[in-house]
């Protein structure tokens, strides 16, 4: 069982490790190997420390704690683009957990807590972007009540451009 709490500055290294390992596992065979191999915990932690310390930032970060410390992380906040509809929209910016813990409910627990907090912030809808080729991620979000709404965006990774699909669910 995991406990979810707000992330603090002491969690930066653990969250960076979760993010880098999560990317390298989830996106193997999707994102170019050169891009994944260039990711480092140290580089991510440096950027995360700067980002985490920004005054007035609206993003919220939660960590899932297991018996070995932080094992998962979710970041969410206000929708960053033009709102996809008339309702007040929150966005899940990132959700990662240790790859060896897939199937243990950590992602679902983090997502449920983020949804509860979004509702308390008066968001009516949660939206997110997921790589179109990330079938496991798409199934996870669909089981969590999200549906693709037809919007797409392209993201460059090294010499390759990958398509992301926008998913939404009512909170």
Q: Which properties best describe this structure?
A:
171 residues; Aminopeptidase; seven-stranded mixed sheet
Task: Outline the structure in words.
With 171 residues, the chain is of the alpha+beta class. It has a single domain (3-170), classed as Gcn5-related N-acetyltransferase (GNAT) (Aminopeptidase, 3-Layer(aba) Sandwich). The protein is 33% helix and 35% strand. Strands 1-2-3-4-5-7-6 form a 7-stranded mixed β-sheet. A hairpin with a 2-residue loop joins β6 (147-157) and β7. α1 (12-26) crosses α3 (41-52). The longest helix is centred in the N-terminal third of the chain and has 15 residues, at 12-26. It is globular and about 40 Å long. The two termini are 24 Å apart. The mean pLDDT is 94.
Mean pLDDT: 94
**Number of separate domains:** 1
CATH architecture, by name, is: 3-Layer(aba) Sandwich
What is the CATH top level name?
Answer: Alpha Beta
Q: Uncertain regions: pLDDT < 50 for 5+ in a row?
A: none
What's the alpha carbon Rg, rounded to whole Å?
15 Å
Order of helices and strands: EHHHEEEHEHEE
In brief:
The protein has 171 residues and is of the alpha+beta class. The chain has helices spanning 12-26, 33-38, 41-52, 106-120, 135-143; strands at 3-6, 60-66, 69-78, 89-97, 125-131, 147-157, 160-170. The chain has a single domain, classed as 3-Layer(aba) Sandwich (Aminopeptidase).
